[in-house]
Amino acid sequence: MTWLRAGLASVLAGAAALGALWLAGEAGFEDARYAAAPGTVLAREGRAILYRAPVPGWLPAPPAEAAASPTPLIPGVEVIFWEEHALLSGRRPVVAARYRIAAETTGGADALALAYLYPFSPSHQAVVLHEALIGRNGEWIDITDAVAVTFNQTGLDVASRALSDQTQTLVRLPGVRRGDMVQITVSRIGNHRLGDRVDTSAVLQGNPLGAGHLRLTVTGTPGTLQAAPGEPLRREPAGPDLERLVLFDGPTPPQEAARYQAPWRLLDGVALVTRTGSLEPLASWTETLYRPDITPEVAAIAATIAEAHPDRAGRIVAALRYVQREIRYFALALGDAGYVPQSVTETLRLSEGDCKAKTLLLISILAALEVEAVPVLVHAEIGPGLDSLPHSLLAFDHVIAGVEHEGERFWLDPSRREQPGALAALGQHQYGWGLVGQRGETGLTWLTAPQGAISHLDVAEQFALEPDGSAAFSTVWTFGGLWAEGAREVIEEGGGRSAFARNITSVYQNRFAAADLAPEAQVSDRRAANEIVIEASGQVQLRDVRAEALRQADGETRERAAGAPMLVITPHAALDPVGFAPGDGRTVPIHLPDSRQVRHTIEVRLPEGWTAPEPFEQTVSNPAFDAAVSLQAGEGGFILTKVYRVTAGELELDALGAVIGDIKQTRRAALVWLPGGERNDLEVDAAALHAVAAPSVPPAPDMRALAAQNAMSAAPD
């Protein structure tokens, strides 16, 4: 029954998944007693110990009545209730969990005899066992003094290149039988001993095993508590000078996000709670951690950069590239390294460091170049929604550097792969809000990306049409900003330029009835402009949608519709700005994860005697995107252009109808029928039309995965 133990472990580990609960420390209970702990794991700054203490008085009583879920997720086991309670009145946060599980079968009893408790970091946190009870024949048997405890250190994560002292606590419960209930109450104290000095926050997450009842509360000094999402269900007294906010109290909610739901909109049964009233202490504390350290090695690096780059912008970019190129990412998050960057001397000696170390090194090199830079705390996923969450250090999981140049601010991420291009053209992940680490900062700053840094794509196509629908064809695709950096990574990791070019030319093999393109499309890397360019040419045969439709028609219709081919020209590379998200029953806005701009230009030279369509221009603007479609006269034909720009953010549901209407409107406007400029009364086969009009370009690359991998905390505990 190891799947149950793993499931319980994942539940408890999941409480740290939002933001980062880095490393934390001391026991915090004056009357704590050591538990029997064979196989205790030694950490660098402390032993993994399970403390014991009575059930604290601030904890609410267990539910008087709670029924198991009518649809249990695990055969032989019923999770009757699951609770998590945070105490934010002391110097360090405490999160207590209490759960009651019944064993319906012998296999269920075997599984319950082995209980994983909170994963924690023994150098900074403590785990306290308050009680372990067996319910049998209407009575509760206290086995707290009889349990055996072992520890398993699991802090090495090769995939994310991170090492921490994260440790699992395994409690072995003697005497569990079929038909018994097990009730355990346990606390974890603290987040990180440094972070706890400036911030008291916790994350609560419900049990995904499908408990019959879930309850989440936070207790603290009245008037000091903040929680998200939403308003608490109720407020109630919890003791002398203590107030309890009940955040959730009922059946376990589904732990699934709606399609296109923003990650900062927390799921039901998940809460971020804090008593931190201002961001200023966090900003001031961050400033002290990232003061420049201009060692002789740093000064030498800066001198080399200054000699090669006389201009200030060039020096900024060269310093960034040095750290990205020369310092391998690796996080050694033991002890205070969960928050404190390692020294620049150590980073240069090892040629490795995490985002904290790399940011400090970049700030130091820039300082030696007389360029002031500041640390900026961000979150790779929930950044655009940080302004809707309470103030908490747990809401940040990454650090980058901010610089100002010629009146504009640039946000540099030294943890990314080496980025080519001028300063204004560097692809910039859309972190949204960030906390600038400067003394006196009291609010978040929106990290605006320069125009050239966002994902952009320019597709230019030329057709020299013949009456039968064949054409001499050429095309140039230009990926820029984040799109170029995503394409460059595909080229480097996915088979080289030839393979990447084939991915593009295959678009035309599928789109046209026939395509005879040059065997090797030309791929060039315009690094100064941060652009990847693909050029291809050859002969193509456009799909005759009349002929394809006539295959399904009767004889009379075929005779009436006989004649010249019916061709469709449309800007297929201009993706729909947003996906068609279901609106029925939806309660959360549509999430648009990235900003991007697409321009698709099609120049057509018509056969002699064919009339060009009438020129037109149509523009639309809505909360999701701006778009323009135009047709102008060209040499012996016409030029069709579609441009749109999407702005990342959330789309409110009351705007969804207008947005979808604009998508359909621009689609129709961009369909050009040849010859004659309009379709006749023949019903065109929908599949044939889809083949020539369906979007053919993948979405802009989402750089969040890399950013999350290079998070400030190497291993959330």
Provide a descriptive summary of the structure in words.
The chain has 717 residues and is of the alpha+beta class. 21% of the residues lie in helices and 32% in strands. Strands 1, 2, 3, 4, 6, 7, 12, 14, 16 and 17 form a ten-stranded mixed beta sheet that branches. Strands 27, 28, 29, 30, 31, 34, 35, 36 and 37 form a nine-stranded mixed beta sheet that branches. Strands 24-23-22-25-26 form a five-stranded antiparallel beta sheet, covered by helices on one side. β23 and β24 form a beta hairpin. α4 crosses α7 (355-368), α5 (312-326) packs antiparallel against α7 (355-368) and α8 (482-493) crosses α9. The longest helix has 16 residues, at 496-511. The radius of gyration is 31 Å and the shape is globular. Residues 1-45 and 702-717 have low confidence and may be disordered.
- Biggest sheet character: 10 strands, mixed
**Fraction in beta strands:** 25-35%
**Portion in helices:** 10-25%
Question: What is the radius of gyration computed over CA atoms, rounded to a whole number of angstroms?
Answer: 31 Å
* Termini Cα gap: 25 Å
* E-strand count: 39
Low-confidence stretches: 1-45, 702-717
Mean pLDDT: 82
Q: What structural class do the secondary elements suggest? A: alpha+beta
Query: How would you describe the shape?
Result: globular
